[in-house]
Amino acid sequence: MAALEAALDAVRQGEPAAVLVGGEAGMGKTRLIAEFTAAARGAGVRVLTGACLELGADGLPFSPFTAVLRDLVREVGAKEIASRLSGSGRAARELARLLPELSDGGAPVMPNEGGPNEGRTVAIDGGDAYPGGVMTAGEARAHLFEGFLSLLERLAEQGPLALIIEDAHWADRSSRDLLAFLIGYQRAVPNLLIVVTFRSDELHRTHPLRPLLAELARIEWVDRTELPPLTRGQAEELAAVVLGRAPDRGFADAIFERAQGNPLFTEELLACSDGTDACDMVPDSLADLLLQAVRRLPEDTQEVLRVASAGSGVTSDALLAQVTGLGAAKLIAAIRPAVAANVLVTSADGYSFRHALIQEAVHADLLPGEHAAVHTRFAETIDVDASLVSAGRADIEKAHHWYSAHNTTGALAASWRASMQASNAVAHAERLMLLDRVLELWEQVPDAAAQIGTDRVQVLEEAVSAAGDAAEHQRGLALVELALAELDETAEPVRYALLLRRRFTFRKDLGLTYSETDLQRALALVPESVSASARAELLISVAHCGIDDDGPQYRAWAAEALRIARELGNVDAQAEALVNLAMLEAGRSQVGASDSEAFRLLRQARELTKQAWAYHPIIKLVIIETHLLCGAGEFERAVEAARLGIADAERHGLARTGGAFLAINLAEPLLHLGRWDEAAEVAGRALDLAPPPRTRAGLWTLDGIIALARGDIARAARRAGACRVVLAAGGYDEQYHLPLAELDVAVALAAEGPAAAVAAAVEALGQYDVSAASPRYAWPLLVTAATAAVQAPGEEAAALLDKLRLLAEKLDGFGPVQRAWQLSFAALDPQAVLDAGTEFDADTEQDAGTEFDADTEQDADGGRLSAADAAVAAWEAVGQPYQAAVALAHAARVALAERAGHEATARLRRAGPVAQRLGAVPLAAQLAELGRRAGIGGDASDPVLTARELEVLRLVAAGQSNREIAATLFISPKTASVHVSNILGKLSAATRTEAAVKAHQLLLL
User: Fold this and answer.
1) How far apart are CA 687 and CA 505, in angstroms?
2) Which of 334, 280, 342, 269 lies closest to 308 in space, CA to CA?
3) Angle 787-922-633 (CA atoms, 0-180°, nearest 5)?
4) Please, which residues have CB within 8 angstroms of residue 738's CB and are 6 or more apart in sequence?
5) What is the SS3 assignment for 162?
6) pLDDT < 70: residue spans in the chain
7) Of 261, 299, 60, whose CA–CA distance to 172 is shortest?
8) What are phi and psi of 84, to 5 degrees?
9) Relative to the CA of 719, which of 179, 386, 630, 957 has its CA 20 to 30 Å away?
């Protein structure tokens, strides 16, 4: 949509633009075009659409353009089209070749498709227009092309025009030629956008559209884009919409793995399932589509494909040769047509099907006897020569093939060995799947325990561990319950206690209602005399529960855990215990500056993690470290630590769990630093992994905050709604619930006004005990609620403001960030200003580091402006540009109320560039309105640059050429040139260098 909208913007500015949109079948091209068409028509753009028909090269010539003309005749009538072409009688006659209704007389003779008519003459009605009354087929086609171009030119004279040609992979030669002609001559038709869609999966190596696309893509105003598949997170979002509820994690993963992000395939698989288990077979509606290309292949190629369909992932040519019994030469000859038709794709390791569902559909064609025999051949061949598959994959491959061949004993043993391989490769989801298979086959193999050398409970314990690492918390909880049911707590208290710990963790991670009962019971089962190491693990878990409580008992448990770990020499446990102590040291403030006692403990823990064997203490350390740094306002350090932590999590196969949680701790300081694009990108990448529910809620909240600040109220409301659904399923957690409440109030204020926001704030304060919360999460909610309350009339708003004052009196302000929130609250509430007081000279410029003494007595006169400016100084000192700009806007508003126009103007001029740079549209609008009230010419943030122009300006300032800018922003060089020209005009700059200098002077960069 962004590419299409950018092209439409270029057309509106008088520049030619064309977009080639590719994508596999089912990827959403038709839906995209429908959405764009509706939006374009709503914006006053005339849209003409024609689709190519699946008739092959000998089909109807010019079919998409004939469809365009037919729709146009229905819309305005043949006479209207003729009148538009008045003065160009030849154009009208030529178009009648495509649609006889456009001819006053009989239909003219149409040259045949392709080459047979080349050089022949054809009779044309109205021969007086053509010397001699005859012309060659080539001349006729040229005149026809010019006629269609003339029609588009006349239509575009009345306003922006979009011509959309869909399914160009089915285009006949004439349609391709006309399309190339129109795009090549777009400069002659201002206001014309051309959009072409095609199936990229249909473009085999000899497809006639391939060279045309390559030729068109070299034209400077043509952009080519491919629709990517849905990410895992997007596919889960789609499943939730289709099902009307959030899908089970395992079900969602199964759908994603099979559909591979194809929206149509995803919907079809959801439609044939019961919403909990994915259907085993490919739906008939999809099978016919998927097998079209396969059925056009030679029979010997199809036979090799049926064998290859039993493979797992990429199959080497050597393995396929062994299983099929074909020699290398015969195998290559049989496979080549499948590669040319894009059914198989090649890589350095061998062959794989282009899409998993094609493989499934082909595999379903195997007869029952063939199915077992092929998989048995694969398993036996790999057993003889493990080098035929990738290193370390032999047991995993054999597990797959023995299971598919219904050899239960072989599948059980291979699956258990393979689960160990997957553990070593940090393939946690695959490890869980293999252990699930062991459990499934357990009752079918009489001597299962002997086959693998362990009991069923250990298999369950391994599966519980894998579920935790794979973020399959629901599955993990079910496995824990199974294991607990099979254990006797008196006979095996340690195993039982550690499973109770797991159950507590899973319930907490799922956001379910939980208590510390399981942990207390576990501690009682395992005194130090029974198992010192297990007791240390349990103490670490129970002490971690106290990081929001700060009670003395939790400190005692953390200290005991550290003592035992030191006596045992367990560096992993020592590191975790020190991290707990650091958080307990930070207490309710949730703040830890780098020179604090909390960080002294964290530094000790970090030294120990250098010797640690396990990864979990490391990621726990990074999570706490980044959390405390961000709370202390050390945002750059938090960003650096979080980035390193995420990369480390990915290396350990924990991107979806610890890595996704760390993404919250990366996006949050980026948000505060005003690096919103980066923050949104970080949140988006983490959401694409479909992380655990509460992690998702944290990411959604941050994304919603950015969306709202940029004026996308609908997106912010959707994010808030999704968070409410997730958080409603579990217990209260201030780090999720209070930021969501803040977002709810802000959305209500933006969407419905102060009264609705006051109601939302009253509801939130009635639901949560904010006075008992950490000030880190309480202050932003109080300020947001006060922002609504001071704008709303009536008793409810007054009562809310009274309640907010009482809460504010009870809340401390730890560190510079919380102090800035505290000052913002005081600046909003006149009564709080009188109570707080300040010393500030409103006529004097103030450095960012100016201190504000809340206890200083002062007169009320000028106090509001002084308090507002003190809030500005606090936000600037901590380096949060958006909050500083918001505070500047409030200070300007106060100055205007006190008839201090000069002071208002000065503050608006400082805030304007910040709002521009961030793309904070609502704030920019507020500043503009305040600027008009202050009598500033234009608005408070002149020059007004669009978000795209600001992106281009940054690259101009970095010294990039138009072509380099185009490559960076995925736009055409001509579009980049248009943006640069607009920027130079708005900045009144003669050169790019001058524009860069002015941009820095105006703080636009």
Assistant:
1) 22
2) 334
3) 65
4) 768, 770, 773, 777, 778, 780, 781
5) strand
6) 55-60, 86-92, 103-138, 140, 275-276, 278, 424-426, 513-514, 547-551, 830, 832-862, 936-944, 947, 1001-1005
7) 60
8) -65, -30
9) 630
Q: How many CA atoms lie within 13 A of 121 on its CB side?
A: 8
Contact assessment for residue 719 and residue 698, using Cβ atoms and an 8 Å cutoff? no
Give the tens place of pLDDT for each residue, 63-106. 899 889 888 888 888 887 777 776 555 666 777 777 777 765 44
CA distances in angstroms from 452 to 406, 424, 438, 698, listed in the order given: 18, 18, 10, 42
| SS3 annotation, 269-327 | HHHCCCCCCCCCCCCHHHHHHHCHHHHCCCHHHHHHHHHHCCCCCCECHHHHHHHHCCC
Q: What are phi and psi of 47, to 5 degrees?
A: -115, 125
What CA–CA distance (Å, rounded) separates 99 from 78?
Answer: 10
Q: Please, which residues bridge with residue 195 across strands? A: 19, 164
pLDDT for the residue numbered 838: 39
- Paired tokens of 277: 């288990």
SS3 assignment, position 134: strand
Under 8 Å CB-to-CB from 320, ≥6 apart: which residues? 304, 307, 308, 311, 331, 350, 351
Q: How many of the other CB atoms lie within 10 Å of CB of 408?
A: 18
Angstrom distance (rounded) from CA 23 to CA 225? 9
Give the CA-trace dihedral at 217, 220, 222, 225, to 10 degrees: 60
The string of pLDDT tens digits covering residues 570-623 is 999 999 999 989 888 888 787 877 778 888 999 998 888 888 777 888 888 999
Quote the DSSP letter at residue 996: H
Structure tokens at 697: 């809620």
Q: Which amino acid is at 785?
A: A
| Domains of the chain, each with CATH number or no CATH | 2-226 (3.40.50.300), 232-280 (no CATH), 297-366 (1.10.10.10), 947-1001 (1.10.10.10)
How far is it, in rounded angstroms, from Cα 773 to Cα 549? 10
* Cα separations in angstroms, 780 against 104, 677, 764, 802: 73, 22, 13, 17
Radius of gyration of the chain (CA): 34
Contacts of 860 (CB under 8 A, 6+ apart): 833, 834
DSSP string, 170-234: G--HHHHHHHHHHHHTGGGSTTEEEEEEEEGGG--TT-THHHHHHHHHTSTTEEEEEPPPPPHHH
Q: How far apart are CA 497 and CA 433, in angstroms?
A: 25
Say if residue 551 is exposed, middle or buried (CB neighbours under 10 Å; 0-12, 13-18, 19+): exposed
User: In sequence order, what are the residues at sequence separation of 6 or more whose Cβ sits closer than 8 angstroms to the Cβ of residue 76?
Assistant: none
Place of tokens 């729709």: 71
3-state secondary structure of 347: strand
Q: What is the pLDDT of residue 126?
A: 35
